[in-house]
Amino acid sequence: PCPLCGPQLQGLCSFLQLSTCPEHLLVRFCGWLLALTPDLSYNSAAILAEQLFLKRVLALAQPPSRHLMAALTSFCSKYSQPFCRVLVAAVLQEPGEGAEQTKLVCELVEECLEPDCVRLVLSQVLELPLSEKLLPVVQAVLGRQEVLPSELFDLLVLTICRQAPAFATSLNYAKLVTAMLTMYQSQVR
Questions:
Q1: CA dihedral over 156, 159, 161, 166, signed as positive or negative
Q2: How does DSSP classify residue 38?
Q3: CB count, 10 Å around CB of 156?
Q4: Which pLDDT band holds residue 3 (cuts at 50, 70, 90)?
Q5: Which whole number is the average pLDDT over 69-78?
Q6: 134: helix, coil or strand?
Q7: DSSP codes, 72-105
Q8: What's this model's pTM, rounded to 2 decimal places?
Q9: Nearest 5°: CA angle at 157, between 171 and 133?
Q10: Mean pLDDT over residues 5-22, rounded?
């Protein structure tokens, strides 16, 4: 068992003020985390994803700094499942526009996430009411051209069809439907 789990790890993160440490130190800390052996447990990685990144990402009012982006991508490269379950889920559920957060999630989907995590992000989106904020995330997922399990693809098609009236004047929705018909024409019946 890990000597630093749950409450102890959260306490250590608070003590070290990891949620507010300078971003250039965050990059170094993530480098150190990635070098640890054995790898962090799922729960420890989830706690660290929350402690290191959640406040910073939810507070973004402009594009993330290169330091923050480097830290996010390096952490995400090794611990993408807990990262998606904690950070991406929180961003998707955050009310309001969240333009910078949405762009960040799209960038991570396009460039960092493994195929299973891309599918996880799509399933997280489909658990929520579709909104203008979420359409670019779905577009980013489709842009990866991953093979989607039939249940997930069917749910996506159903969701997009059901939501059509609400997005009658949405350019993002039109782009999404076009992308879906283009990329998955063999699956769309």
A1: negative
A2: S
A3: 22
A4: very low
A5: 93
A6: coil
A7: HHHHHHH-HHHHIIIIIHHHHHS-S--HHHHHHH
A8: 0.86
A9: 40
A10: 70
User: Where do the H-state alpha helices sit in the chain?
Assistant: 7-16, 23-35, 42-49, 55-58, 66-78, 80-83, 89-93, 99-111, 115-126, 135-143, 150-163, 171-183
Cα→Cα distances 57→23, 72, 141, 156, 176, Å: 12, 10, 20, 27, 25
- Give domain limits for the chain: 6-184
The letter for the amino acid at 126 is L
Closest to 41 (Cα-Cα) out of 71, 84, 79: 79
How much is the average pLDDT of 66-81?
93
Q: What angle do CA 22, 63, 44 make, to 5 degrees?
A: 50
Give yes or no for residue 153 having a pLDDT over 70.
yes
Kindly state the percentage of the chain with pLDDT values over 90: 48
Tokens in use for 177? 């439907």
Instruction: Tell me what pLDDT residue 134 has.
Output: 93
For domain 6-184, the question of CATH label 2.102.10.10 is answered with no
